[in-house]
Amino acid sequence: MRLTYQYRLRLTKKQVDTFENWIELCRRQYNYRLAERFNWYKENRCDVDRCSIVYCSIAPLKDKPNRWSQQKDLANTKALFPEYKELPSHTLQDVIARVDKTFDRWLKGDSNGKRSGRPRFKGKGRYRSLTFPDPIKPEHIEGKFIQLAKIGKIKVILHRPIPDGFKIKTATITRKADGWYIGLSLEDMTVPSFTTDAIPTPDNTVGIDMGLKSFLVTSDNQKVQIPHYYRKAEKKLKRLQRQLSRKKKGSNRRKKSIKRVAKTHLKVVNQRKDFHYKIAIWLLNQSQVIAHEDLNIKALTRSKLAKSVTDAGWGQFLQILNTKAASAGCLVVAVNPNGTSQECSDCGATVSKTLSDRWHNCQCKASYCRDHNAARNIKHRAVGHPVLKARGVLTDGWTVKREACAVP
């Protein structure tokens, strides 16, 4: 099992300067290695894939840079630029690993075949973390201090203890707007990966309908109000950004103003994430199976509702919900969202509604809040539509051509 714990750091002025210098050196190395790959790709890419057996005037291909060849070339970098000798070797090698990963995601895609966009060079301030891949031994932790290579002991606020039996595999130093943090990646091979044998049934399943009027409504008609953290911070952000626009570029006052804006954005991010974790735990304490709509959130963020959808953070919430469900031995099910608001959760008839229609009234006398009706439909789809199947509306647990059904 693998976990990551993040702690706040209390660094001395000298340690801050050292980390700042190391991050800048890593940023330059990242851009240089990425440029190497782009140059090879540009110079050696050719549409011609066949050559004459007798004669070919095409120059031989240069050696393609990869992770191992670039790591081997770090010796030359240290010889030409002695300041790189100050960095831990494995930290510098991790920079090459990041370049290799982002370049392969662009050309080949991840394990699911999803490709990322073209990698971009890191501008000043855009490279914010250092990784120490070497495992940290127990003797390197003394009270509130953790010892790292070539930097010595750094003070950590251990707001929660490291679990017994877990080994610290890697440590990542991250610079944020409000200070420095360390992320410890913990692993315990004796604990199996999280698995669940939960099967959706009407008794152990709850459906949730996420929206913009309420953050979510459950199939039991429990509502969670949306907090609107970004909307509430907009007035302050507008004032701070107006002050920032008046500052002279390159001045110290502009740097301070940038930091104030970044801190405000970070506070909104932290508030939203804390809210998502609390709601996820609240749902998992109620039921073993959580059903939700399989929404195309990326498309919604390009619509007129983009700001509201982004402020709600549905994507982050579903990611957190899946992670916490796996650790709790629960199950999260995504169902087809088509027609969940239009169908009657009692008889299956289609009741056309516009976005302004917030109440569901059916000829079978069913009367529900629109979101409550949708949450009930989501639950029915997760468990195989037991209510509708009993009325003969469905076959094999999936929707077929329906007609309006009246409850006897």
Automatic annotation (TrEMBL):
Residues 1-45 form the Transposase putative helix-turn-helix domain. Keywords: DNA recombination, DNA-binding, Metal-binding, Transposition, Zinc. Transmembrane segments: none annotated. Residues 314-378 form the Cas12f1-like TNB domain. It holds the Pfam family Cas12f1-like_TNB. Residues 200-303 form the Probable transposase IS891/IS1136/IS1341 domain. InterPro entries: Cas12f1-like_TNB, RNA-guided_DNA_endo/Transpos, Transposase, Transposase_put_HTH. In the N-terminal section; belongs to the transposase 2 family. In the C-terminal section; belongs to the transposase 35 family. This is IS200/IS605 family element transposase accessory protein TnpB. It comes from Anabaena azotica FACHB-119.
